Queue: 2 jobs
Job 1
Amino acid sequence: MDQSLTAEEKLTLKTGAFGAVFLVSNADPGLFALVRESFAASGVIAGTSGVVRDALTSGPLPRLPEGSSAQVEQAALAALGRAMAILREKAPGEVAAYRSVVLTAADRVARAHRGVDPVEQVAIGRIREVLDATDRTSG
């Protein structure tokens, strides 16, 4: 049975998901690309349901640390790992949905402007590694 998530846990899920999208978007920066990518990600998030939708569409916006790209990436991927751990503990039925929305949003962001370039593919690969690593630790 799924348990309720605290506001802090919801923010962790949001930080992980939005952080993953940011990593892919930031891999190929540009103002026009950012607008198209934002619409692509929001469409995926709007299509979710249950605990995942509630976490991603309510509460404050997440804050990633300011600093180098490596620091931002580290914080985003750490939040993504914590989000998966929270879901495995409190809402195991939502793990696959969260994983799917994160990967789908990352892929759509990458494809939103001139297709997926190699730098974006690397970012998606890192996101997938975190999701897959946390899946392996749960089994």
Job 2
Amino acid sequence: MVDDGNHTFLTAELMPIHKPRNMISPTDFNCMGYAVPATIATKLANPDKAVVGIIGDGAFLMTCMEIVTASMNHIGAIFTVFNDGELSQIAQAQQVPYNRKTCTVLGVTRFEGIAQATGAEYLRIESNDEILQKLETAWDLTKQGHPVILDVHIDYSKKTRFTQGIVGTNIKRLPFAAKIRMISRALVRKVTG
């Protein structure tokens, strides 16, 4: 289960999917907030399967209180929050033409507090070395009927293939005069930025 954002494209790029219907995504990649309730519904519909939501921190903040439903109904699913403190897909798209992030910083969010407020378990991953052990703990907790918020601190300094390609795609579709204007503005911002 994925929400909309950089994590969606990282999942598509990096996660092997071996069977049909084993990855669920919003159909048009534009439904922020989709994955928390969809993860709960998927687990309800498939109680014997392991269910994981992969959610950006901005999307998670839109619907995270729905995890109360998971706690009250002993729905053991993992809500993996890719936490970088901003709306990364939008921030990267703004950084290229504007040389700044105009409206994407989320600030400090204490996901441990959200876990406490919703009755979920909380685990935090700060480095690659912790991934396997924390996932194992999370799986054990879900088998006991506990929802788990897995707070993954991620570095998006390397752009996803989607972000790398969006600028080229947008430039190709523009008329020549608009291309020149857009490229000129981007160059001026880079130089004066």
